[in-house]
Amino acid sequence: MRPAPAPSSRCLLTAIACGLLLASGCTNTDTPDTPPADVQTAKPLPKVQAAAPAAKVTLVIKSWKDTEALIAANKGKVVIVDLWSTSCLPCMKEFPHLVALHNRFPAGKITCISVSCDYEGLEDEPPESKRDQVMDFLKETQATCTNILLSDPDTDVWEKIQLAAIPAVYVYDATGKLAKRFDNDAGDYGDEGFSYKKHILPMIEQLILGSDNNQTRSPKP
Questions:
Q1: Choosing a second label site near 19 at 20 to 30 A (CA), which of 32, 57, 95, 131?
Q2: pTM confidence score
Q3: How many whole angstroms separate alpha carbon 153 and alpha carbon 14?
């Protein structure tokens, strides 16, 4: 018998390759196109809402006449006008209570106006020269209410409104009428003078309550 012919080298290589595939298994090793599960289910980060900008401390220079016009323009609200200066220790002692009053009630109910009487009328010290020292105190007390530096000399204003000395606080009701002026010209409040806590705040609360009652009262038929 004639012996079987020897396989060619190409056939031998093909046989070896097939054997290796059978040994390892014919699995698909291609990388999937879809992202991993944790990436697929990841949610976008929530948008962070920017905080409202904090109120700033401001200061404007006005005459007393313009200040009176501003008071009249706030008719419909209870208006508190505090006359003070950085050279008046009792003024600065009570001033933080004006700031607290401004922060306590809604802007639709009250308007707080601080009026600095630091300008003394000296030619070499105009009102603008007092701005820095007044602003320093306003920033220290975080007074974000309406702040005015009078352009009229302090004594001229006091003479016009018949005021002996500061501190003095004007309170106007919602009709624009002067409800009361707090001062110590007659010594009514003793050596310590009036205070926001004991004298002014109770009146403000009553005025606001009365204003609310008037607004909700039904008109007569």
A1: 32
A2: 0.74
A3: 111
The secondary structure of residue 200, as a DSSP letter, is: I
Q: Domains for the chain: give ranges and CATH numbers.
A: 60-184+192-215 (3.40.30.10)
pLDDT tens track, the chain, 221 positions: 444 444 444 444 444 444 544 444 444 445 555 555 554 555 555 565 555 567 899 999 999 999 999 999 999 999 999 999 999 999 999 999 999 999 999 999 999 999 999 999 999 999 999 999 999 999 999 999 999 999 999 999 999 999 999 999 999 999 999 999 999 999 999 988 999 999 999 999 999 998 777 665 545 54
Instruction: Please report which helix (H) or strand (E) contains residue 81, including its range.
Output: strand 78-84
Tokens of 54: 């904090």
Amino acid at 149: L
Nearest alpha-carbon partner for 112 in 138, 74, 142: 74
Question: What Rg do the C-alpha atoms of the chain give, in angstroms?
Answer: 40
Backbone angles phi, psi at 184, to 5 degrees: -125, 30
Residue 182: both structure tokens together: 């707090």
What 3-state class would DSSP assign to 149?
A: strand
Q: How far apart (Å, rounded) are the C-alpha atoms in residues 221 and 140?
A: 53
Dig out the tokens for 119 from the structure.
């300008």
The CA distance from 131 to 122, in Å, is: 15
